From TrEMBL:
The lineage of its organism: Eukaryota, Viridiplantae, Streptophyta, Embryophyta, Tracheophyta. The keyword ATP-binding does not apply. Keywords: Carbohydrate metabolism, Fucose metabolism, Glycosyltransferase, Membrane, Transferase, Transmembrane, Transmembrane helix. This is O-fucosyltransferase family protein. Residues 555-577 have a biased composition (Basic and acidic residues). The keyword Isomerase does not apply. InterPro entries: FucosylTrfase_pln (IPR024709), GDP-Fuc_O-FucTrfase (IPR019378). CDD domains: O-FucT_plant.
Length: 577
């Protein structure tokens, strides 16, 4: 910067042409020539100085460039953070959820979320949700054949009620699958309280135990049977199923599991919640033995963990993973895998790297100990036949000696249920649901359904292993100390502990992430400073406006009527006749 005044002073000494014009010609020329030479000397000096100044080391230039990039990155980082915050506000995410975003780095209570008491399930019918149409005025009878095991069938039953509502049909109590891998011949009445199911949903859908004989005799053809694609939207049912139902009066939908889209109108989503969390109650014998097991666990310890190991041979074969059992394991699981002809060939190492492999019982135990659960913690293990038997379970027992199963807690009482895998699964379901902490080991149906119900009950602690990150840690655990391993496990599990802010509206399967969850009213002393309490019921799924939750015309019925108009038919009344 010191060269600047020099330049100004030299320039100011350039010849004054007006003054020189009054001098004699010779003197004028000589004076002008001298000044001109001085000025040329100054220009050459400045040029040399500039050339010298340009010889700056490249390392210094690179350093300045990196410093500038750092400043730009810091600035854009702040801008991106602000944009994310404003975008969350624009889509009307809950204010409380926004507060939690800044607290993700806080330590958490491994037994219970400190925010769980601020949430509750809210699935009440809206005031403008029309009552169920009477059987005689309905569009026909809907038969449902659910498939799979207990919890897979549960998803089908839940969605069947909603489909019956969409079609304005009378629902016949669903049939359960007797031909699946589990070979359980239990019927609906053997597992669920059928009277509770029918009466609780009476205002939403008319449900009957069977198609009346008079209707069956009047039919010229047997019930029309069809299978709908997975995740079908309401439009599909109205376009493809309803015309057949109106023509044939009775339609049966087979292999009915996950056949309805996850994202529906708000009132239909709340109906899903009423079915799954209220109407579907287990029979009295199953309920009693489940509650007995919970009582025994509570007598031994004030709180306990329930672990759904899901380490049965069929699960391992289906996963396509390898668990270190050598050629014997490869052959046995390979034979089981042949039962599913459509399964692709998978790379065991690739599936593990992608986080698709269930943890071994030993790895589950290591994860829990690394998270901070002590050696004297009580474990209830829900599982069927463990591949490898006691040899596979031994490491988990050593990590948690207070290890219990339903077979250990109720030897005699359990005998009537032993031939029925679905009823045994129902017992495990009760004990897991009542646990203080529930640990899943896969993304199967029981894990999804239970995770959803525990969120509905106020975000009870539910731990889902981050298998993708944990698998790398388990392979490298011999090369690090326990404190380092524990620290890394805790870091990997952030976002997988069942905290309220882990829920992302509109993402994932509805049965795992139900939208019918509301916030209790509270006052934020740090931010509101005397403002009125926040809205008592702000739905977690904020795709709809808040005020549309209980007022205004029912969105589900509006969409049905709109679709009927699009089909060029007269709208079918949804009001009670």
């Amino acid at each position: 910067m010191a060269a600047v005044p020099w330049r100004l002073s030299l320039i100011s000494e350039q010849p004054n042409l007006a003054a020189l014009s009054n001098q004699p010609n010779g003197q004028h020329y000589q004076y002008h020539q001298d000044k001109y030479n001085d000025w040329r000397w100054w220009r050459s000096s400045v040029t040399q100085l500039q050339q010298q100044r340009r010889k700056v080391p490249r390392s210094l230039v690179c350093g300045f460039m990196l410093f500038g990039l750092g400043l730009i990155s810091l600035f854009t980082g702040h801008v991106a953070s602000d944009l994310e915050w404003y975008s969350q506000r624009l889509v009307k995410r809950s204010f409380f959820y926004s507060r939690l975003e800044g607290r993700r780095r806080e330590g958490i209570d491994i037994w219970k979320s400190k925010y769980s008491n601020l949430f509750y399930g809210c699935s009440e019918r809206g005031r403008n949700f029309p009552s169920a149409i009477r059987e005689r005025a309905s569009n026909g009878y809907l038969l449902i054949a659910a498939s799979g095991g207990l919890n897979q069938q549960r998803t089908g039953i839940t969605d069947a009620v909603v489909v019956a509502r969409i079609l304005n049909a009378t629902l016949v109590v669903p049939e359960l699958d007797h031909r699946s891998y589990w070979k359980d011949d239990s019927d609906f009445v053997n597992i669920f309280d059928i009277d509770q199911f029918i009466s609780y949903l009476a205002k939403d859908v008319t449900i009957v135990k069977r198609v009346p004989d008079k209707v069956m005799r009047s039919m010229e053809k047997p019930p029309y049977t069809m299978r709908v694609p997975r995740k079908s939207p309401p439009e599909y049912y109205l376009d493809q199923v309803l015309p057949i139902l109106l023509r044939r009066r009775v339609v049966q939908l087979t292999k009915f599991d996950y056949r309805l889209a996850s994202n529906l109108d708000e009132e239909l989503q709340k109906l899903r919640c009423r079915v799954n969390y209220h109407a579907l109650r287990f029979t009295k014998p199953i309920q009693e033995i489940g509650e007995t097991l919970v009582t025994k666990m509570r007598k031994m310890a004030k709180r306990y963990i329930a672990v759904h190991l899901r380490f049965e041979p069929d699960m391992l074969a289906f996963s396509g993973c390898y668990f270190g059992g050598g050629e014997k394991e490869r052959f046995e699981l390979g034979e089981i895998r042949k039962r599913w002809a459509t399964l692709p060939d998978l790379s065991p190492d690739g599936e593990r790297e992608r986080g698709k492999c269930p943890l071994t019982p030993h790895e589950v135990g290591l994860m829990l100990r690394a998270l901070g659960f002590a050696n004297n913690t009580y474990l209830y293990v829900a599982s069927g036949e463990i591949y490898g038997g006691e040899e596979t379970l031994r490491p988990l027992r050593e990590l948690f000696p207070n290890f219990y199963t339903k077979e250990m807690l109720a030897v005699e009482d359990l005998k009537p249920f032993l031939p029925f895998s679905s009823r045994l699964a129902a017992i495990d379901y009760i004990v897991c649901d009542e646990s203080d902490v529930f640990v899943t080991n896969n993304n199967g149906n029981m894990a999804k359904i239970l995770a959803g119900e525990r969120r509905y009950a106020g975000h009870k602690r539910t731990i889902r292993p981050n298998a993708k990150k944990l698998s790398a840690l388990f392979m490298a655990r011999d090369r690090m100390g326990w404190d380092t391993f524990s620290k890394k496990v805790k870091a990997s599990q952030r976002g997988f502990m069942g905290e309220p802010d882990e829920v992302r509206p509109g993402r994932g399967d509805f049965h795992e992430y139900p939208s019918c969850i509301c916030e209790r009213p509270f006052t934020d002393d740090e931010n509101s400073k005397g403002k009125d309490q926040l809205l008592a019921r702000i739905p977690v799924n904020l795709k709809e406006k808040v005020h549309s939750k209980y007022v205004g015309e029912n969105q589900g019925d509006k969409s049905l009527q709109r679709l009927k108009r699009r089909m060029g038919e007269e709208p079918i009344s949804l009001k009670r006749e």
